[in-house]
Amino acid sequence: MVSLIEINEERGRRRKRSTGRGERTNGTSADARSTTPSATTSSSGNGAEKMRKLLLGIGFWVQGLRCFPWLGVNFFLKDGLKVDSSTLQILQNSANLPMVAKPFYGIISDSYYILGQHRIPYIAIGAVLQAISWLAIAFLSQTGISFFTITFYLLLGNFGASVVEVANDAIVAETSKQPVSSKNSKPSSSGELQSFVWMASAIGGVLGNLVGGVAIDKFSPRAIFFMFGIILTIQFLVTIFIHESSLNLPKTSSSGGIKKQLSELLAALRKPEISYSIAWFAATYAIVPSLIGTMFYYQTEHLKIESSVLGISKVIGQVAMLFWGVIYEKYFKSVPPRKVISSIQVTMAVFMLSDILFVKGVFRTMGFPDSVYVMVFSGVLEALFFTKILPFSVLIAQLCPPGCEGSVMAFLMSSIALAFIVSGYFGVALASFLGVTGNDFSGFPLALLIQAACTLLPLYWSYHVPDPVKSKTNGKDH
């Protein structure tokens, strides 16, 4: 065998000298050189894929599980600090302020490496900040608890969560663009990875709501905060033992820094079809007054609905979102996004009108239990607020110029977060104007009617959203 290899190598050297080209030699040595690296690359690719799924699976599962402690926050504020419904809703929405700065976190992680890595260190930092915030709330003394203290730690926790989400989303985006290194290697499928992280997040949401509803009856909110803090600590420990090189992410250059990244984002946002679409979509949330805090008090204080029922309601909402992902992929992906989003908006208004009948006790007189209505209709309505994000994300992906998808998507998510905050404040102002409090719900039906009307209002400006599918059919390019 050795002699054959030497003969083939000598033939290769002669051929190179005679032709002036570095052609590949024929024979056993060539087969050995071509087969071994291919096998190594395939093995390395499979190992990197497993590490990515481990990191992202835990990350998105914990992201979905965040509903677990937040259900405890509602009861902690209502029963522990005795805050009213308006204050509860202000805190819920104000705590989401760190989510608005997501594009900035993305630009920083793109521009600055930590110990030669630019994704995993940010995930670790975000996880430890969340763990500190929830464990601090769990161990605060009764005299040290105040509305402002809780607000600070919730802001810190959401800051950490937003940093983790941006880093995880960036890994998914980078992996989906990674080229196949070998014909024997399994190609990177963005759809497969997206489905995987969607499932991980949905499972976390279902588990968090299901366990959270039961845990509220058996444990104190502090115990729930402690349990979630331990889960975040585990996520941090797992993350720091993973090196970014094991994920086989594409190498990117950070030359240009923040200024370059920001200029690319601004260039994309100067396109009217992108800026107008995002502005319209954010408006579909911002101009609709959120009455979630008022509804929570109505269900728990006035109707005495148990926390387990609220947990099941949110589980049904998570399951509905999971089914929506499958249904959209199969039946609605080819439908213009504007038409899908408008249909969802109308459906939301119908559910809000149904809430009016619920508050007036119409369903109760028909023999339909309040708990059943809360489990099914309230859960589905809450899910509807998020289902329209999927078709709009598809639209933005079609409109976005190549190379800045990640930053534009981060800007979109931050716009939605800001719109939710404005919606929450709008809801507090509306409830206060109509005299709706935690003890007086006489003006609640009118507030729900105004909410339904505001939900239909953005449809008048839906023409600002382009139809890229139709345009491509007509030979135009947006």
UniProtKB/TrEMBL annotation:
It is found in: Membrane. The chain crosses the membrane at residues 54-77, 122-155, 196-216, 223-242, 274-297, 309-328, 340-359, 371-396, 408-434, 446-463. Residues 7-46 are annotated as: Disordered. InterPro entries: BT1, FBT, MFS_trans_sf. Pfam families: BT1. GO terms for cellular component: membrane. Residues 28-44 have a biased composition (Low complexity). It is a multi-pass membrane protein. Keywords: Membrane, Transmembrane, Transmembrane helix, Transport. It comes from the Eukaryota. Belongs to the major facilitator superfamily. Phosphate:H(+) symporter (TC 2.A.1.9) family. This is Folate-biopterin transporter 7.
